[in-house]
C-alpha cells in the first residue's frame, strides 16, 4: 500500500494538550477545518471515526472506518433503491490493526482486511474512494468513485466539551459531487451526473462510555443540504445543525426537533426548527441495523435511508422547497 497523504493547511489549532486535556481555544464552530485532532492520553478511551454515505437516485452506499483504540471496525452497506436489494458486511480488527485514520479530515484513510478493503485517497480538490469485499451477501463488491471537493463548498467543523472531561471534534462534509460506479456480483451501478453526492462524517475525541445520538442529513442539486443532530452535544450547549445554500454553510441557532410519527420501523419523521427555518418530512425507504459487539461493548445503530420533502428558509428568509432529496436518519445507542 502506498503512503497516505495529506493536503490540509497549516498551522492548525491543537485539539488537546500533551496530557489529553481539551484546549479551550479549539472549542467552537468554523466553516473550514482548523483543528489538529491528534489525541493524547486516555489510552483505551480514544475514538476515531470516519463514515461515508453516497446517495444517488438509484442506490446508496454507506462505509464506516473506525479506530476505537482496542478494536478497529470496518463496515459496508449497499442499498438498491429500485429493487430493495440490501447487503452488508462488518469486520472487526483487534487493536485497530490495518486501520489508518488520520488526525485531519482532509487526509487519506484506509481499513484493510482480507474480507473488506476500504480506501480513500485525497488529492488537491478531489478524492478517490475504492472498496472491495469478496463476499457481501454472497456476492463480490467493487467500488470506484471520484469525489470532488469544490473550493466554494463549506463544511461543519465543531469542537465541543462532553461530560467527565470528554470532548468531541467533528467535520461534517455534505453535497460532494460524485462520479464513478459500483459492481455487485453481475449487477453494475453508475452514479447519475449532477444527482450523486458523497458525505463524510469525521469524528475524533474522548467519548462517553454510554452514548446516544440521532443524526439526519440530505443533499440536493444546487448546493442545498442539511445536517441535523440531537443527543450528542446537549451537555455542551453547542449545535451542529446546519443548512447549505449554494455551498455556503448556515449554522442554525434555534432548537430543532426530530420526531418519529409512530413506532413502525419505516414510519415518517418530522424535522422542525423553532424559528421555522426547517420544516421537513423524512420518508424512509429502507432500515439498516448494525450492532457490532466485543464482550460487553457494542454500538447499536439503526440507519434509515429515504428522502426529504418540505421547505427551508434561505439566508434572506426566502422559501427554498425541498422535493425528494435523498438522505438518511440514524440513531445509535453505544457502550464503548
TrEMBL record:
Descriptive protein name: DUF2804 domain-containing protein
InterPro entries according to UniProt? DUF2804
> What Pfam families does its record include?
DUF2804
